[in-house]
Specification:
The chain is α/β, with parallel strands linked by helices. The chain has ten helices and twelve strands. Helix 1 (42-53) packs parallel to helix 3 (86-97) and helix 4 (147-166) packs parallel to helix 7 (206-219).
């Protein structure tokens, strides 16, 4: 038998205050088995529980929306600010813990797609689409997000993380990639603001930085934060690998783990880099993590 290639895969690693039993983390997956009110069904919980049974050190629940009023990108999403969701979310955490794994959830906001149809959603009746800047799209009009709403959403990320901690979760992931809220603000293509949340790269990253600070303030230093980014969006005017390297330097002291993905959700040509098919070479996005790792002071 040839020597095992990944020698550290099954060795422990410390992430924040947690000691993971191995280096395997089950990434968040969007499945449409949840109830219309956002509650997790037994089938949903069983789907994720299998990853814990299989030996993953952390299992991450997907698409947990922090601000129900503006953030749902499609109908089958769980909202952490809706008390109806909390019972099933806590049942999920207990199911993951039964198999010696840590429970995490992906805190997210759809940005302008909270009011528009998207690749994975439907048109929202009576919803206003708020993005970084005003724009007219084929799906409808997008309004510039008011500063008061920005601050409210920043607070919602902190409160959402604190709620996860209270109901039994061990850590959280902040979704800052794939064309959702934070990447809309990060991209100069979609962010044409002239206030403190637009213009320079630091200003465009301010929303993410403040949200991470809000999570630390609400959930405490003993609740690890993972941040998912697109190492390269592969879109004209979108985030590039060099941009992501700059971003990592800004957030490295505000999180405990960085998850490097790729692409955006808005088009199939980009989506297949986010979810590589068997028609692409194995590990087509790994080089992005390798390059970003050179800039980071936290695990990748």
């Amino acid at each position: 038998m040839s020597e095992f290639k990944y020698k550290k895969l099954f060795t422990p690693i410390k992430i924040g205050n947690l000691v993971l039993k191995n280096r395997i983390i089950a990434a968040p997956a969007s499945i449409l088995w949840i109830a219309r009110d956002g509650s997790l069904t037994p089938e949903t919980i069983a789907f994720y529980e299998q990853a814990a049974m299989g030996g993953a050190a952390v299992v991450t629940y997907g698409e947990t929306i922090v601000h129900e009023a503006t953030g749902k990108s499609h109908d089958r999403q769980t909202c952490i600010d809706d008390p109806q969701s909390l019972v099933s979310l806590s049942q999920y955490a207990r199911a993951i813990h039964r198999h010696g794994a840590f429970a995490s959830a992906e805190l997210s906001h759809g940005g302008k797609f909270g009011g528009l149809s998207s690749l994975s959603g439907t048109q929202k009746v009576g919803r206003v689409a708020y993005g970084p800047s005003h724009e007219i799209t084929p799906e409808g009009e997008v309004f510039e997000m008011p500063r008061e709403l920005i601050l409210e959403i920043i607070e919602a990320f902190g409160k959402g993380a604190a709620t996860l901690k209270r109901i039994g979760y061990d850590m959280c992931m902040v979704h800052a990639g794939h064309g959702w809220l934070f990447s809309q603000f990060l991209s100069p293509k979609s962010n044409r603001r002239t206030d403190e949340f637009g213009g320079s790269f630091e200003n465009r990253a301010r929303l993410l930085v403040m949200a991470l600070e809000s999570i630390r303030r609400h959930a405490g230093a003993d609740f690890p934060i993972e941040v998912r980014i697109s190492g390269d969006e592969f879109a004209d005017g979108g985030m590039t690998l060099e941009d992501s390297k700059r971003l990592v330097k800004l957030i490295a002291d505000k999180c405990d783990l960085i998850n490097v993905s790729a692409g955006r959700h808005e088009g199939i040509d980009l989506f297949i880099r986010t979810h590589p098919t068997s028609y692409l070479p194995p590990g087509p996005n790994v080089y992005l993590a390798e390059e970003i790792r050179k800039e980071a002071r936290v695990p990748i």
